[in-house]
Amino acid sequence: MTDPFTPRAQRRLRRRLLDDDSGAATAEYAIATMAAVAFAGLLVVIMRSDEVRGILTDLVRRALTVG
Questions:
Q1: Is the pLDDT of residue 28 over 60?
Q2: Is 1 a domain residue?
Q3: Which positions, given as ranges, span the membrane (predicted)?
């Protein structure tokens, strides 16, 4: 019976395990999604500010004013 842990078999197994990048795209999408959610949360906090709300309201009023 041959030894399953020969150096050649170990190299093949190591190469197969280390070269496997399945799931990498999923992890990248998860990180990008988490960053987008964090950015959206930051925007919500900023938009709740009375000062920012006033600036945006004034901007819309001026844009809709004719003349």
A1: yes
A2: no
A3: 29-47
